[in-house]
């Protein structure tokens, strides 16, 4: 736990270091990104252990959803960084004859990034990749709920980086509050909508720009012409990865009444295939992060009609992959983001009705539509607002570094990944280089010709 004095000194030292201009150079940024990758490689064994201890995360999920993502993101950034850093040429109207116009990418300065517990390594390190690439310094606050990973991240970063460049401050919300009292040049927050609002309130005191990566109830719509078997397979994977503790997991299903029983049957088949007949005894099945979250989720098991799962192990904090049928919007499970391995099912007969209903709710972080007809796909895409998503798949969009990842409305603001991370952590500075060889007269008072300039 850091004292307020240590936090004040840390931010001051980082600002001094940033002002030294060292981070502006391509070679410096490239070197630091390589150090970050080497750090993760060197600590792989400890990372697996920490994630296992915090969430019972299997070697497979640690590789695919935490380390694998970070390695690809660092490699992608290293490959393109030089080009991203180059000033971008911009066009100009005829009134600007003789000028050359550019967009320079300028680092903001000292960044604060606050991470959640559900992918405690991935979501702590991914924003750092963008912050370093764009030439900033950064203070990172990991989640206190996943203490093994938080301590390990602190240790790794301390071993690898000068704290005036990158540093970790550990602790709970009291520490976050102290951090938020400081003047940062950018705040990147990943977490709940409720805390996102607190962060933005603090940021407004200094007009600090923010990116808010938040959550919400992300629906999956399974239409009557969907490929049922594939839909079931991709839904089971998307929902029960990390035991449903994924910001973009399908929170609930809208299923066309004509295919409901076939879909439920296929979902059952894939749950057994991926997690065995007894998921609670499967060593690789992720647990709920802590007792509070377990106790929050448990009452949902008696909502609607239980059709798959429903079992739990209080000692291990595990809940079976569960499907609930006959759910209505009045049920407790439909009031907030579930963030656990419980998938409620709402039936529909008219897609238009689903679209109208979604338009009346908060904009979700993700939406998934399963169906073959392009017209229906377009209907959903054009009429429902949401952060991002897939047609005939779940989660996969977030692993494409060419796509921006972020929410809208209650699910957040701003985006990152790949070039979008670099852009997020860079101010776009517009520069006009004027000629001194001639001077067009029309903008000056007294000129016979006049143009609208501003
Ligand atoms: P959270 O908002 O409770 O906590 C996130 C961070 O904020 C933690 O580091 C925590 O210490 C800090 N914090 C908590 N309360 C605070 C307060 N009152 N003041 C200041 N700081 C505070 O979120 P969580 O439970 O860790 O994560 C789950 C949420 O995050 C879900 O809603 C999920 O959808 C969302 N999420 C979003 C994304 C995304 O990329 N959009 C990714 C993962 C998780």
From TrEMBL:
Catalytic site positions: 213
Protein family membership: Belongs to the aldehyde dehydrogenase family.
Protein's UniProt keywords contain Oxidoreductase: yes
Protein name: Aldehyde dehydrogenase
Keywords recorded for this protein, A-Z: Oxidoreductase
Gene3D superfamilies: Aldehyde Dehydrogenase, Chain A, domain 1 (3.40.605.10), Aldehyde Dehydrogenase, Chain A, domain 2 (3.40.309.10)
Highest taxon of the lineage: Bacteria
Positions of the Aldehyde dehydrogenase domain: 5-431
Keyword Cytoplasm: no
């Amino acid at each position: 736990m850091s004292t307020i004095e240590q936090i004040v000194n840390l931010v001051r030292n980082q600002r001094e270091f940033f002002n030294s201009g060292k981070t502006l150079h391509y070679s410096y940024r490239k070197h630091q990104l390589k150090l970050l990758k080497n750090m993760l490689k060197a600590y792989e064994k400890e990372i697996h252990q920490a994630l296992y201890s915090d969430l019972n995360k299997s070697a497979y999920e640690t590789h695919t959803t935490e380390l694998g993502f970070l390695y690809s993101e660092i490699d992608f950034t290293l490959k393109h960084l030089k080009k991203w850093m180059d000033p971008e040429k911009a066009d100009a109207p005829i009134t600007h004859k003789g000028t050359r116009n550019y967009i320079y990418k300028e680092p903001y300065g000292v960044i604060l990034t606050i991470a959640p517990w559900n992918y405690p390594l991935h979501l702590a390190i991914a924003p750092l990749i963008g912050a370093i690439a764009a030439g900033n310094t950064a203070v990172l606050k990991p989640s206190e709920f996943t203490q093994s990973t938080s301590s390990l991240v602190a240790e790794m970063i301390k071993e690898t980086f000068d704290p005036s460049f990158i540093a970790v401050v550990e602790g709970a919300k009291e520490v976050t509050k102290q951090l938020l009292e400081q003047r940062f040049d950018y705040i990147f927050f990943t977490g709940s909508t409720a805390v996102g609002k607190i962060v933005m309130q603090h940021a407004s005191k200094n007009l600090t720009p923010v990116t808010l990566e938040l959550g919400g109830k992300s629906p999956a719509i399974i239409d009557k012409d969907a490929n049922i078997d594939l839909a079931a397979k991709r839904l089971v994977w998307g929902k029960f990865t990390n035991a449903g503790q994924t910001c973009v997991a399908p929170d609930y299903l809208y299923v066309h009444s004509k295919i409901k029983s076939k879909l439920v049957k296929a979902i059952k088949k894939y749950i057994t295939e991926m997690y065995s007949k007894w998921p609670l005894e499967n060593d690789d099945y992720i647990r709920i992060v802590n007792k509070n979250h377990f106790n929050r989720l448990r009452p949902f098991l008696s909502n609607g009609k239980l059709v798959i799962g429903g079992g739990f192990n209080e000692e291990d904090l595990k809940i079976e992959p569960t499907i609930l049928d006959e759910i209505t919007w009045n049920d407790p499970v439909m009031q907030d983001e579930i963030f656990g391995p419980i998938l409620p099912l709402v039936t529909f007969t008219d897609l238009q009705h689903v679209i109208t209903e979604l338009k009346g709710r908060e904009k979700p972080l993700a939406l998934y539509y399963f169906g073959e007809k392009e017209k229906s796909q377009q209907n959903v895409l054009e009429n429902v607002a949401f952060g991002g998503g897939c047609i005939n798949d779940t989660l996969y969009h977030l692993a494409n570094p060419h796509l921006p990842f972020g929410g809208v409305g209650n699910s957040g603001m701003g985006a990152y990944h790949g070039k979008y991370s670099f852009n997020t952590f860079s101010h776009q500075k517009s520069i006009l280089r004027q000629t001194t060889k001639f001077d067009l007269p029309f903008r000056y008072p007294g000129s016979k010709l006049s143009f609208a300039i501003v």
